[in-house]
Amino acid sequence: MTTPTTHKNKTLATFLALVLGGIGAHRFYLRGSLDRLGLLHVTSIPIAGMVWGLAQDANPFYHVLPFLVSWIVAFLEALVIGLTPDEKFDAAFNAGAGKQSDSGWVLALLLVVTMMLGTVTLIGTISRLFALLFTGNADG
User: Fold this and answer.
1) Angle of helix 44-54 relative to helix 60-83, nearest 10 degrees?
2) What is the CA radius of gyration of the chain?
3) Going along 4-76, which residue ranges are E strands?
4) H-helix or E-strand containing 74?
5) 76, 14 Cβ separation under 8 angstroms
6) What membrane topology is annotated for this entry (predicted)?
């Protein structure tokens, strides 16, 4: 891992994972623009477009499923980033920055919101997918 020249803020990384995590913004912030997993998040958009283009008469839920999976992974990454101890986060991302992280109540609030949104998204995705797979969309 390269030594960063600027300090990486753990609260900002968690916020990016919460708000723009589906396109990998938190990965690019922490690891740079060539991060492979960040690019995998970005590819969920063209994959969703390919699903829509190849199966236009399929249920619209399938068209957004790749993007939903990317968001669920981003919510999990937000929790991992936010719950990482400051010392361990600094050792991984701020080794050469000369400044230490000091997380506060904003990070705790972001983690609560992430947990709520992530849980709702995961349960909603699982329930809708199972309804489509097992009933053939019989219930709407």
Assistant:
1) 170
2) 18
3) none
4) helix 60-83
5) no
6) Multi-pass membrane protein
Measured in residues, the chain has a length of 140
Residue 45 amino acid letter? I
Count CB neighbours of 49 within 10 A.
13
* Token pair of 5 as six digits: 């020249």
Structure tokens at 113: 């919101």
Instruction: Output the six-digit token pair for 56.
Output: 């236009």
Overall pTM > 0.85: yes
Number of alpha helices (DSSP H) and beta strands (DSSP E) in the chain: 7, 0
Mean pLDDT of 133-140: 73
Among 82, 71, 87, 84, smallest CA distance to 12 is for 82
The per-residue pLDDT for range 83-117, each reduced to its tens digit, is 999 999 999 998 887 788 888 999 999 999 999 99
Residue 123 to residue 9: CA distance in whole angstroms: 30
